[in-house]
Amino acid sequence: MSTAVTHAPVFEINDLNLWYGDHHALKNINFPINRNEVTAIIGPSGCGKSTFIKTLNLMINMVPNVKMSGEINYKSKNIINKKIDLVDLRKNVGMVFQKGNPFPQTIFENIAYGPRIHGEKRKKVLEEIVEKSLRDVALWDEVKDRLHTPAMGLSGGQQQRLCIARALATKPDVLLMDEPTSALDPISTLKIEELMLELKEKYTIVVVTHNMQQAARVSDKTAFFLMGELVEIDETSKIFSRPADQRTEDYISGRFG
Q1: What is the mean pLDDT of the chain?
Q2: Is 122 exposed, middle or buried (0-12, 13-18, 19+ CB in 10 A)?
Q3: Cβ within 8 Å of residue 188, ≥6 positions away
Q4: 9-252 maps to which CATH number?
Q5: Which candidate in 79, 126, 159, 255 could, as Cys together with 100 as Cys, close a disulfide (CB 3.0–4.6 Å)?
Q6: Angle 156-168/186-199 helices, nearest 10 degrees?
């Protein structure tokens, strides 16, 4: 059940514009992303959803000829600033992709990788981090007896939960999820959705999804993007029952052409 608690914004996006070369991909985006909430980003293919979440940890900077203007304020600091520490930003704002992409290493080494990169060398501490991260994604009991076997031997749903655990191992503030269940079967999808609802107690989650039912089930707020514009953002219950914009109504009801 949702509570009436008002969460402070962890991100505040003001007048964000983004261009790929001459293509204006994001247009005047404005909204807050609140702490300890799940924010779902919906909209048709090519509308800017994935581009938008990749701006939140500046992974978009890896694409050639990208230019941005406006503000992405994370903890009151505009990260569209060349002086930002990208390693620190990506430690705090983790990303989980559409398809589980374990490293070609053991289950243990996949989880320990991030903490090691950030300087943790103590074996006992790494063991504790690995166990906690796997427990947080309800995977510990399934893999505790094969931590030192290849991660690629896990099922698709287990690989995706492993990648979420890998992101959690660096103790992020925010978890970005780009269509995290689109390649999964219904049972694995349900597990990831249940996980999102549990994780928001500790983390802020932004999830891109094409699945309207998923957005309705897991998110507190839903943002509808169309052709690079944010059409509207509101409480998920309102977006799905009484949207303010006819274009949102048409998209959700399947009349969108």
Answers
A1: 91
A2: exposed
A3: 155, 156, 157, 160, 181
A4: 3.40.50.300
A5: 159
A6: 20
